[in-house]
Structure prediction request, 352 residues.
Amino acid sequence: MPIINCDPYQVYINEDWNSFRNLLSRKDYSKIGVLVDENTALYCLPILQKYIHEFNFQIIEIKSGEHFKNLETCKEIWSHMLENGFDRHSLLINLGGGVIGDMGGFCARTFMRGMDFIQVPTTLLSQVDASVGGKLGIDFKDFKNLIGVIDDPKAVWIDDQFLKTLPARQLRSGFAEIIKHALIQNSQMWDELKQIENLENIEWSDIIYRSVQIKKEVVVQDKYEGGLRKILNFGHTLGHAIESENLNSEDYLLHGEAISIGMITESYISMKMTGLSKGEYQEIKKYILKIYPHFQNALDNEESILEKLIKDKKNKQGLLNFSLINKIGESVFDIVPEKSFIKEALLDYYKV
Ligand SMILES: NC(=O)c1ccc[n+]([C@@H]2O[C@H](COP(=O)([O-])OP(=O)(O)OC[C@H]3O[C@@H](n4cnc5c(N)ncnc54)[C@H](O)[C@@H]3O)[C@@H](O)[C@H]2O)c1
Prediction:
């Protein structure tokens, strides 16, 4: 795969691991740490170790999951680095999904005012989305990603062999961001994606490459989300509210599962407000419901979902702020939706 240039860093996809070793030798790092959770320690670390065994590195292991993406875990990481002689000339390799990447990057860029880090994303979601674009951070109180910075890694190293051990549900969760990238920017990719009915046995590298390209094109133009970058929020405004609403329920939704509902409902609002045709809306709904279950209970508490929308950090001066599509492959941002359309969209989700 060609290397994707996100100036000042590069995204390597299924590249020869010799180049990874070159990245590590490029500077005389005082220490190298590899941040893992218990799953990536088991499944991904042996792969990494095989390629970088000649380097001296320390493993920093934390507990997996969004629940641990917080200040307490950052303290563990910073303490480990402090007690083991890391300094600003050290390097942290973040080996894991979006939680490891976001939190590891944040810890690296704040430790002694900033040491280098490399993202080695191991979930589909982190390969096509979280590892690119420089958003780093942690959750605080009940708010996702409230504390953080935007800063660049030294490199992003993607290898689709890591996906072999990823549970099917996690793989499907990451696929939602690929669908989103096609819907907001690339109708041809959408036409190809919608032929996919089963996520098993897919040759991922080309899909990952094209998806990262779309994200890169957006973030290099608007790193700090002043305008264009907002289109990446398509499906995420309602999606986040639905995700938070179901966070503590027994059958909680993974991020991409909530985004699957968010993309359907925000496509409905797009049909009402920004000219998406009825035919395209139905096509989007039909395909997404082919890949994802029709989550019947997720929208039960409509009032609470609406309340969460009002608290969304994307709002400005108390007005809701949505990114929508006007047709498949074209998006618009800064749309203030009518509340009645949001309610209709939630209702319409249930209709088969
Ligand atoms: N920075 C950004 O721009 C951005 C964008 C999207 C999402 N995110 C963040 O990403 C996070 C979600 O990321 P995620 O979906 O990767 O979740 P995750 O990091 O929690 O990983 C999901 C699960 O898969 C396990 N896992 C990871 N790689 C594995 C592998 N190869 N084999 C087996 N198991 C493996 C993990 O241990 C974890 O249990 C959220 O915190 C979200 O806020 C950030």
Summary: The chain has 14 helices and eleven strands.
